[in-house]
Amino acid sequence: MKDFWHRFRANKGGIIGLALLAAIVAVALLAPLLFPGNPWKMVARPFVPPFEGMKFPLGTDTVGRNVAAGLAYGGRVSLLVGLVSTLAALLIGIPVGALAGYFGGRIDDLLMRVTEFFQTVPSFALAIVIVAIFQPSVVSITLAIGIVSWPPVARLVRGEVMSLRQREYIEAAILQGLSTPAIILRQILPNAVSPIIVMASLMVASAILLESSLSFLGLGDPNLMSWGYMIGAARTVIRQAWWLSLFPGVAIVLTVLALNLIGESLNDALNPRLSRRRS
Amino acid sequence: MRGTTFMKIATRIAARLAKAAVVLLAILVLNFLLIHAAPGDPAVVMAGEAGATDDVFLAQLREKFGLDQPLYMQLGKYVWDVLHLDLGFSYRQQMPVFDLLMDRLPATLLLTGSAFAVSLILGVAAGVLAASRVGKWSDTLISTVALLFYATPLFWAALMGVLLFSVVLGWLPPFGYETVGSGFTGIRRALDIAQHLALPALSLGLFFMAVYSRMTRASMLEVAQLDFVKTARAKGLSRAVIERRHILRNALLPIVTLAGLQAGQLVGGAVLTETVFAWPGIGRLMFEALTQRDYNVLLGVFFVSAAMVIVFNLITDLIYGIVDPRIRAQ
Predict the structure, then answer these.
(1) What Gene3D superfamilies does this protein map onto (chain A) (predicted)?
(2) Considering only CB atoms, which residues of chain A are within 8 Å of chain B?
């Protein structure tokens, strides 16, 4: 563990990412304290420009809502959807990959065909169709993102399981009479955890991008303020009010950037052999 | 000898085509299931908001689509219709969905094709530049910019492009396919369209520009460590020749693989780009279908975009076989 932290710290990007993410999470968690009241409520006249007073540091939007409050509450949605949809993708991808890699043969063939299918289908278009048909809500958005993002997980886990399956200690476990689920869950998967963690951290970033794209198109949860919605609503007034599109976008870029930096650092720290070869 | 190579390529193509057909069929089944999994009456789903209140109209639809028949019969009919290029009817636009799609497809092909070329050329060029100056400030700059582009949502990059190049600088038109009512023809018209195309294509290509530049850089640095490059150096070849003929050629292989992945991202991203720039392609059509709850059109766009990806993958597959003789020999 100490060794891991040492290696993680060696990468400046990871530390910057961690600090950035900590700040974003803090603002998102403290949103109800920082901005009591509903972020949808009108609080001032519309189109107050930013940096003009301490009351609305980032200005107000087309109907007089506080942009800063919207950003804080939007962060909650982005982070939550990013995290839960990644968990959903792991819940689909890990079993599929583990079964395919462990059993091989026909099961592998079948599962990999399904995986390939979902990799071929344009993922954003599929996400749009799913959310539109099942009506936009946090649940349908999270599920849609999970459904379109599991295939890389399945491929990764399959590869790991396939190579671990050949090891002697697995043969020993089989000879000892351990049940198959026990072997997969307790002997194989724990040894495949680090690449999964690296991939998951990068997946949260792309899930946040997907969520913001969906809500930009008007497919966000109608009851929740989100960064993508804010940009989508401000799109038509970009000439008059540049700040309405600029600030939520910066928030998305910073969050995604932080997660990508952390993911790369984790990769360096958890797979030291690979990363040394890379640079 | 020649004949057997040809046979091998022919069987490979046949196998790929068969696989593509199976995937398309699977997408049709998925479409069908989605219509039926939707909450509420499939007839209402298919009619969209247009006819949802008219009971007589819904009853007609139910009869027309055989919604009283068993599910597998309905699926059979659906697949049969699509095979005959019948993707249903848009009651909103009062037009067959297939005709709507064919109207809009050329604009999307132009946009995605340009975005692909832009991202590939600029991305690889930036990657080569960064790899040949590894550790210097230009390498750091390129890598940092790539990292930023990698984290930028497509639609936001598009909007910021409009803000900078159209609103502030006034260099490029903010939206549309061409100047309406200009009466331009021939080369003037092509130039006009190219001007309108610049921002959409650049913003759509931005993400993969970053991906390609990072891949090219990493891949070039890796190939540079290999023994045959050392041999070339020992032979006394110049740096430029080694970089171009020995390293870049081999470093490009993983990039062709990535190109297949990009196809899906491009057609998905086209929905966002075309929405921002009012580009008259199938992506914009999908957005319109969303706001009008026109599910027939929505599923039609999904099917055609998937078909586009499959065709693109077939092409990259063939190119890969030509570029890399090791695969051709298999």
Answers:
(1) MetI-like
(2) 117, 119-126, 128-130, 132-135, 205, 209, 212-213, 216-219, 228, 231-232, 235, 238-239, 242, 245-246, 249, 252-254, 256-257, 260-261, 277-279
